[in-house]
Every structure is written in structure tokens, then in C-alpha cells.
Specification:
Order of helices and strands: EHEHHEEHEHEHEEHEHEHHH
CATH topology: Arginase, Chain A
Distance between the termini: 35 Å
CATH superfamily: Histone deacetylase domain
Number of domains: 1
Oligomer: single chain
Length: 360
């Protein structure tokens, strides 16, 4: 198996504020770690250079008014979208390169340059809605990529969003579209406050949005339970032609913004299961797009390494885990979390069993 990594040094130039959680070191430290591990010298790893997304592709997702606003404010700098998303000078070009990076990953898979690909892009995208950015996001990278795929004849695409924060932007974009199955696992309560099980889609899209809220303290065991009980059976029934993953790494037990307790090896195992699904259902066609993750030194280099190793079919058993006082605090909640997860899964199955026979 060959795995593509989409990366460009311009992704390091995006900076809202040196103290902002979504800062350049999120990728810089990962690149250093991957280099130290010799990953870029591995014959199974292919480095892919991104290109900017076209305005035409962006307008498949975002309104003309918002795109013009973002471009205008980016040219002068200093604008504000919300309390944690300002508009630094030049962000529009960098956002186009991030969205184009996602498309580049999909194109490499379609062209058989690689079997699967990981777009390590910044800024992230899954909170961006058609008419506005939000939550550190400007353009919805994964939605722009999925729309690009739909224009090329795909009729069934599954988006798995495992970021700790609900992908409210992506959900809104595809809420009425039965060609896209959107499954989100996310901590609740947490920003942005959406993603309840009763949010199932509307019109043609009813039943094609599946939200699985997770309590603080959810560890590897909880994620694997959700994968086995909901994600895998629904995917097998939907039979996607392509799998897209919003790969947020803020579920790690060291992340300062969340209360979840996933390990780096847990991330690797989740990706291994997703890759196996893609091989069984859609000829291995899978692209992951980087979203959140704010444990810049302790976790991100290792979670990203684990994900790439799993995508390339390599051993993930030796991925390092940091020691952290946060881990002890979060892991104390595991027993409570597991019971709550079972309750939440039962509720999701109750709601969605009328749409998916594999959940009955």
C-alpha cells in the first residue's frame, strides 16, 4: 500500500496569534517528528504537493457573498468572523491551498498515484458553513473535496468526522443530500453545541446524518464500541464509493481543549479499521483531512504518525504515549463514560433503525 501525504510549507504561514490554539507548531512539530522517524524516506510514503482550490470549486460549497467578504478582508487583514476566528492578512490564499490540498489528496487516489492519502492542511475547515467561517475555520476543506468528487460521478460518499468538536459546518452543507452519509463522533457538551442524535438530516437527506455524542472520559474502548455498533454496520449497508475522514486529533488524552481520553495508538487502530472498511467497500479509496488537535508537542506528532502508519499498513504497536496529569484525570471517568456511551449508542440505534436495517 502507498499512502500520500499532502503538505506545503505555506501551511505553516497561517497565524492568527502566536498564543492561539490553532498555531503553526501544530504542523511544524509533526513534520519534524515524521522526518526524525524517516517516514519521508519510506518507499510506501509519497509526498504530494497541493494546489489552490479554484473559486469554482469553492463556490460549490460557499456563497459568493462570503467568498468575496473573506477575500476582501484577507487582503487588508484585521477582520473578525467570531471571537476565536479572526482574518489575518493573506488567509484567503492559504485557505484556498488547504482546500486544494484536500482535492489534491482525492485526485491522487482517483489517479492511482497512491492507495489512500492524508491531507495535512491548515487552516482546518469542518466548522465553516456556506455563508461564514467559525471555530478556527474559513473554508470547509472536506466539503469542497466531497463536492469535487460528486461532480466526477460518485454517488455515495461517507464522511466520518471524529474530531472532538461536532462538524456543524459539514453537517449543514450535506443535511439534505442522500449522496453523502455524514457520521460524527464528538464530545458533548462542547463547542459548537450541536450534534444531537435527533439531528438526522432533512428531505432527501433524512437518515443520512448520524450524530453520536460522547461523554468526557471516552477512551479507546468507547471509540471501538461505537465503531463496531454503528459506524461499521451502517457503512456496510450504505456501501460508499469513497470514504472521507475529518481527522481531528483533539480527542487525545493530553488535549487541553477537550475531555476525551483517546490514545495515539487508539487513533491508529481507528484508522486501521477505516482503511479495512475502505478496502472491503470501495477499493481502498480513502482520504483523511486534518481538522483540530491542540496538544501541540505531547500528542499531535504521535497521533499523526499513528494515522499515517495505519494508512500505510504498518505496525502501530510501538507508537509512543506521553505521560500527563490530564490522562489520570480523564481516565478516572472511563467507567462512567462507558455506561453513558452504551446509553447514547442505544439512543442512536433507536432513532436510526428506521433508516438502516443493519441497526435493527
Amino acid at each position: 500500500m502507498k499512502t500520500g501525504i499532502v503538505y506545503h510549507k505555506k501551511y505553516l504561514e497561517h497565524e492568527q496569534d502566536p498564543r492561539h490554539p490553532e498555531r503553526r507548531e501544530r504542523l511544524a512539530y509533526t513534520i519534524d517528528q515524521l522526518t526524525e522517524e524517516g517516514l519521508f524516506e519510506d518507499e510506501d510514503i509519497v509526498l504530494l504537493e497541493p494546489f489552490p482550490a479554484s473559486i469554482e470549486d469553492v463556490l460549490e460549497v460557499h456563497t459568493k457573498e462570503y467568498v468575496e467578504f473573506l477575500k476582501r478582508e484577507s487582503e487588508r487583514g484585521g477582520g473578525i468572523i467570531d471571537f476565536d476566528t479572526n482574518i489575518p492578512k493573506g488567509v484567503f490564499e492559504r485557505a484556498l491551498l488547504a482546500a486544494g490540498g484536500a482535492i489534491r489528496a482525492a485526485k491522487a487516489v482517483l489517479d492511482k498515484e497512491v492507495d489512500n492519502a492524508f491531507a495535512m492542511v491548515r487552516p482546518p475547515g469542518h466548522h465553516a458553513k456556506p455563508y461564514t467561517g467559525a471555530g478556527f475555520c474559513y473554508l470547509n476543506n472536506i466539503a469542497i473535496m466531497v463536492k469535487w468528487l460528486l461532480k466526477r460521478g460518485f454517488e455515495r460518499i461517507m464522511i466520518l468526522d471524529w474530531d472532538a468538536h461536532h462538524g456543524d459546518g459539514t453537517q449543514e452543507i450535506f443535511y439534505e443530500d442522500d449522496r453523502v452519509l455524514f457520521i460524527s463522533t464528538h464530545q458533548m457538551p462542547l463547542y459548537p453545541g450541536t450534534g444531537y442524535p435527533h439531528e438526522v438530516g432533512r428531505g432527501r437527506g433524512e437518515g443520512f446524518t448520524i450524530n453520536i455524542p460522547l461523554p468526557p472520559g471516552t477512551s479507546d474502548e468507547g471509540y471501538f464500541y461505537v465503531f463496531e455498533k454503528i459506524i461499521e454496520p451502517v457503512a456496510k449497508e450504505f456501501k460508499p464509493e469513497f470514504i472521507a475522514i475529518s481527522a481531528g486529533q483533539d480527542n487525545h488524552f493530553t488535549d487541553p481543549l477537550t475531555g476525551l481520553a483517546l490514545t495515539a495508538r487508539g487513533y491508529g487502530e481507528l484508522m486501521r479499521r477505516a482503511v479495512n472498511l475502505s478496502r472491503d467497500l470501495c477499493k481502498g479509496r480513502l482520504v483523511a483531512v486534518l481538522e483540530g488537535g491542540y496538544s501541540v508537542e505531547a500528542a499531535l506528532p504521535y497521533t499523526n504518525l499513528a494515522i499515517i502508519a495505519a494508512m500505510a499498513g504498518k505496525d502501530i504497536s510501538h507508537i509512543r504515549e506521553p505521560k500527563s496529569y490530564l490522562a489520570e484525570l480523564k481516565w478516572r471517568k472511563r467507567d462512567y463514560a462507558m455506561q453513558k456511551i452504551r446509553d447514547n449508542v442505544s439512543e442512536v440505534i433507536r432513532i436510526h433503525s428506521k433508516y438502516w436495517s443493519n441497526l435493527r
